[in-house]
Specification:
single chain; alpha+beta; S16 Ribosomal Protein, Chain: A; flat
């Protein structure tokens, strides 16, 4: 089973937000998932990314592959966490 860390689209038309999830690559984009790792709301100006880095690192150590978009979000969160 190949696990991907990717975005899951939620919300209503014109007001979308995303959950960062660990899911089998064969599952649909908005279908089943294994675990919720965080959220991303592109319409908010402040603090729009909320990702649990411990859970993400745990999944990556088990072989999960983040998508390009999620990889960039993880870098942003890690950068903010390192600055604190």
């Amino acid at each position: 089973m190949a696990v991907a860390i990717r975005l899951r689209q939620e919300g209503s038309k014109g007001r979308l937000f995303y959950r960062v999830v660990a899911a089998d690559q064969r599952f649909k984009r908005d279908g089943r998932f294994l675990e919720i790792l965080g959220t991303y709301d592109p319409q908010k100006k402040e603090s729009n990314i909320n990702i649990d880095l411990d859970k993400v690192n745990s999944w990556i150590s088990k072989g999960a592959q983040p998508t390009e978009t999620v990889r960039s979000l993880i870098k942003k969160v890690a950068k903010v966490a390192a600055a604190k």
